[in-house]
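Model: You mentioned two targets. I'll fold them one after the other.
Researcher: Yes, keep them separate.
Model: Target one:
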Amino acid sequence: MSLVSLQNLSVRHGGNTVLSNVSFSITSGEIVTVVGPNGSGKSTLLRSVIGAQTPSQGQVIRQGGLRIGYVPQKLHIDPTLPMTVRRFLSLPDRVSNQHAKDALAQAGAGQLAQRQMSGLSGGQFQRVLLARALLCNPHLLILDEATQGLDQPGSAAFYHQIETVRQSLGCAVLMVSHELHVVMAASDRVICLNGHICCEGEPEHVASAPEYRALFGSGTQGALALYRHEHNHSHDHSCGHDHAIDTDVTLPPNEKVTPK
C-alpha cells in the first residue's frame, strides 16, 4: 500500500506553472530520489508531499496516520546561543532522555548529546537534524538537500546512515539532492524532474536515459558507475540487462525507464 500518492499534481505560483501533471507513489521501505536542475520544482514537490503547499490541480493522498520526518536543507541557529544537542532535541516539545538517546544513536550521532550546537561540524549538525526527524518514528523520511555544504566523503557517509535508518525503521525515504553520483547510488528509484517528470526508474536506467543526459550530461553516468564500484554497493537482482553500467551492478531484464 502506498504511503503517499500524487495524482496529476500541478502547482502554479502566480502565472507560472511550477509543476505540471506529476504522478507517482511511495511505498514503505523504498528510497526515492528526486533530481533536477535549479528551478525544476523539487522543493515545491516536497512541500506538496508534506502538505505545506496546496496543489492548483490534482491531489496528494496520504495514508491515514502517516508520520513524516523532515530534514531541511539548512537551519540557522544563533552561534552565540548556548544550546546543547540534547536541549535542541527537546524544542519545542520535550522528549525523554531515552528517546533522545535512541534517536541520536539511529542517526549515528550517539556521542553528541552534550555538545554545543554551535560547535558541531557540518556533518555532525546534519546528523543531529536527522535525529530530530527520527523522534516521531516516521513512516516517511524526507530530506531536502540535506548534505549541502558537505564534502563528498561526508555526503557518502550521511547517505550510508540513511540506508541504515531505512533498514532499522522500515521507513520510506524521499530525498532531493544535486549530488548525482552519491545520491543516485543510494537510491532504489530516481525521479528526474523538470517541471514535470522527465523519466523515472532504477538509478542505472535513469542515468542512461536521453531525458536525463539532456539535463545533466553524459558524464554523470560515468560518475555513477565509478561511485557504484568504489562504494561496493550490491543488489539482489537477476543478470542479463544490456544497460548495466559496470560489472558489479546487474539489473532485472524487465525493468525500464519510464519516460514522461
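Model: Target two:
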Amino acid sequence: MAINTVIFDFDGTLADTNRMILDSWQYTYKTLRGAEEKEENILKTFGEPLALSMEKAFPDVPASEAIAVYRSFQEKHFEEMIRPFPGMVELIRKLRQEGCKVGIVTSRLRNTTVRGLAQFGLLEDIDEIITCEDTEKHKPEPEPALEALSRLGAKAEETVMVGDSLFDIRCAHGAGIRAILVGWAMAIGEEDKQGEDAPDAQAESAEELLSVLRAMK
C-alpha cells in the first residue's frame, strides 16, 4: 500500500550529532572514571536509550547522575556541534509539499530535539514529535512508533520509518511499520542488516532516500 506518512529518527538520521554524542560520552567517562573509553565501545550504544547505556557503562553510579554529567556537556555545546545531514532539510520539505505527514521519533529529550529542529528551520515542517518523555518504553520497543501513529492519525501500512540503527528497525517492525535504514551514520554494522531485523529498504544519501520513498508512494 502506498505511504502517506514518514517518521524520522533524529540523531544519526536527520541530524549529524555523532561527534557531539562521542564527545559527551568521553566527557562523562573522564568525569566519572578519570579516563576516556575506546570509541568503538561508545559507538555500540548508538540508538540505545541513554539510561540503559549509562547503567551498563557505569554500574556503580546512579544512572541519573551519569546522565546529568552527559547532558551538561550537550547543554553547553549542542547548537555549535550539530548540523543536518546533507539534503535532509530539503527532503523533508519536499515530502510535505507532496502531501506527506512527517513525524519525529527519538530517544532524545524534547528540549534539545526542538532546539535542533528550530536550528535547521524545520519546526513548522514536522507534524508530531515523540521523545523519550512521551512513552514509558523506548526503542527498540514499538511504543514510540505506535504513539506517533496515534498522534498523526496514520495507519501502519501507510507509514514508513527512517532510521540509522537496529533499534529503529525493531521499533518500526514491532509497530507493523516498514523501515528504511540510512547509511550515513555509525550505528549499525553489516552483520545487523540480515535476517528478521533487516530493513525493508536502504539509502546511502538523501537523494536516494527520496527516490526510495517516492517508489513506495
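Researcher: Noted. Anything on target two?
Model: The radius of gyration is 17 Å.
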